[in-house]
Amino acid sequence: MSDIRVLTTSEVAAHASRESCWIIVHGKVYDVTDFLDEHPGGSKIILKYAGKDATEAYEPIHPPDAITTNLPVDKHLGVIDQSTVVKAVKELTEDERRRQALWAARPPLDTVLNMHDFETVARTVLPEKAWAYYSSASDDEITLRENRMAYQRVWFRPRILRDVSSVDWSTTILGQKSSLPLYISATALGKLGHPEGELNLTRGAANHGVIQMIATLASCSFDDIIDAAAPGQTFFLQLYVNRDREITKRYVQHAERRGVKGLFITVDAPQLGRREKDMRMKFVGDDAGAEVQKGQDVKKDQGVARAISSFIDPSLSWKDIPWFRSITKMPIVLKGIATAEDAILAYEAGVQGIVLSNHGGRQLDTARSGLEVLIEVTAALRARGYFPDPKFEIYVDGGVRRASDVLKAIALGAKAVGVGRPFLYAFCSYGQEGVERAIQLFRDEFEMNMRLLGARTIDEIVPEMVDTGSLPSHTVLTPEDKLFNATYQPLSVAKFREAKL
């Protein structure tokens, strides 16, 4: 311990330029001079905190270990002498005071009756940039809205006079027990919306036997999430494949050693979609763009999504699947399948499952909903004798807001469904208690809907219980989803600057 260098704030403040840039993060001092031009968010945002404490800006959009992992050890200069730190009194902006007042005036949690309520509260209490990042989708956001509307074009065919005094909606996902036929899907940057970030999901899921998928781009570090787990708690890992495959290999194998039970490889993001709500926020510095992105015309207005994703490998292809199978014994699931053709290739590649997904509408706009793709996928796999197969599971995500949505997907052949934004909005609005309330609401809806549908177990939910005649028709009239429409924020257009008249 005596070898650790202790620095004063005045010493750090002397290094506040591009030529010598030191910053403080979580009480430790780092020399980031050589990292300035490599930072995915650009150098300006770092230089803004040169010679100062950058923790408040760093924490919401980085895992705690990001700086220690990516910065050479010789750039870890020491710790700050806390006796030299002047505690500044932060003056709240008018917007921050307004949001604090709104937070205090949130609806009581027991009056939140559905996932739409969580979204309404989140939209009101979140900082504008956080809401833009979480809620945004690509281009005209047609797929975002279609994900929700698709479920409303499927109608139930309930069976009657069945003894439904006892119903059981538990299941297994990749062989792991789950109290619900859904898992918490990966969403990034949880600390943008709540100081505890993804730990809210971990603790809430632990109390109710629900599986959490850990995001590569979580605000909390992977190990912090695992360390917060209850004994025997099940996790899956969502993986963005790094250009440096050695980094990917270490990450995957570390996750396996820590007990993760499934690897979900995101395959629909060789480049991130244009998420205009996020882009208009200009979350990052004017010179945003990593060194590896030079020559790729990365614009300064690409938003937080583009700033944090420059490491993702666009060369990922089918030829890489054997390599993944060689580095892990975890079941492998490909997340982002959108056609029957690719579902067949996935099966023949020997993976253990697929997620029919369009990335929550955040990638290719006007891609079809996972629910619609499910019909063609099961038909194509069945025609080749590939479905059903207990060693190959199909999941769907995107647009799910009700247990009835999940039951429709299960009836059409899905093993389970991924739910992302609703749980994100639940913890942004109410922390861990919000997550647990969301799980309870789903549980209550499963009990009611299974009884009304005439199904006592998940296995009794069969294709004959749904009418999908209208699902492929994108122009058919459907009842208006007033709750979804009330929470959806339409896109905006470019705004004039204030004119001097």
Radius of gyration: 24 Å
In what order do the strands lie side by side in the largest sheet?
A: 8-15-14-13-12-11-10-9
Quote the average pLDDT.
89
Quaternary state of this entry equals single chain
Number of distinct beta strands: 16
As a percent range, the share of helical residues equals 25-40%
Describe this structure in words.
The protein has 501 residues and is of the alpha/beta class. Helix content is 35%, strand content 12%. The chain is built from 19 helices and 16 strands. The strands form four sheets. The chain has an eight-stranded parallel β-sheet. A four-stranded mixed β-sheet has the order 1-4-3-2. Helix 6 runs antiparallel to helix 18, helix 9 (199-206) packs parallel to helix 18 (421-453) and helix 15 crosses helix 16. The N and C termini lie far apart (64 Å). Mean pLDDT is 89; it is low at 283-301.
Short structural summary:
The protein contains 19 helices and 16 strands. The chain has 501 residues and is α/β, with parallel strands linked by helices.
Spell out the blueprint of helices and strands.
Elements: E1 6-7, H1 9-13, E2 22-25, E3 28-31, H2 44-47, H3 55-58, H4 66-70, E4 76-80, H5 94-104, H6 115-125, H7 128-135, H8 142-152, E5 155-156, E6 171-173, E7 176-178, E8 182-184, H9 199-206, E9 212-214, H10 222-227, E10 235-239, H11 245-257, E11 263-266, H12 276-279, H13 303-307, H14 321-327, E12 332-337, H15 340-348, E13 353-356, H16 370-383, E14 393-397, H17 403-411, E15 416-419, H18 421-453, E16 466-467, H19 482-487
Parallel strand pairs: 1-4, 8-15, 9-10, 10-11, 11-12, 12-13, 13-14, 14-15
Antiparallel strand pairs: 2-3, 3-4, 5-16, 6-7
Helix pairs in contact: 6-18, 9-18, 15-16
